[in-house]
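REQUEST ID: PR-0412
SUBMITTED BY: lab tech R.K.
PRIORITY: routine
TASK: structure prediction, single protein chain
INPUT:
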Amino acid sequence: MAELLSKDEFRKQLEEAIKGNHSQKAAFTEAWATGKLAREHFARWAENHYHYVGPFADYLAYIYAHTPEKYTEAKDFTLQNMYEEELAADRHTDLLIRFAETCGTTRERVEDPNNMAPTTLGLQSWCYSIAMRENFVVATAALVVGLESQVPDIYRKQTPILREKYGFDDEQIEFFDLHIVSDEIHGERGYKIVLECADTVELQQKCLEVVRTGAKMRRMYMDGLYNTYVAKDLETVQS
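STATUS: complete
OUTPUT:
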């Protein structure tokens, strides 16, 4: 029978739940980081990524609504995260669209859900489902720990090549630089909330399960992008 984990052990297990399916190791990330992609591949990524991260404030709004008043710190964090997505300085989706347009696509194509791969729709739907249906602690574990906390490691791997090989300037790739910093902070605060508020064996186990599933869902999304937009092009180049 499972026992209540100490915070240190719980954190360790949460991190382990991500490791095996961390999107930093995905084929799409590797192809990006090693300079094998063309700008048109970045455009297809942006057209998909918009429909995953674009509704992030919506996901968070459901979590906020389901968080009891006594969890003041958790509510404050969720509200601040929503504010940063939509209102602080530039909207994050506008920064993403700026990058997309630099890669040769248009705002209209990015915003059109018909340009999503099925695996992108799967990830988006999973995020909505978790945010709407689960306990706020479980939902925070899924979306902030399982998904958002991965971003800094992914973008640190992808961003240098955008400057060094592809010649993007700081304004064009602000989306990535911003999220390396902001999502590291969000991830740590997410961990803190989960460690403090998942105070039963059942909640701890559900958090571990949903973080593991979240990592798999994001990896499925990344593999979907690679298989749909990249694999055939790289096979042609290699042959």
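NOTES: Residues 201-238 form the longest helix (38 residues).
REVIEWED BY: pending
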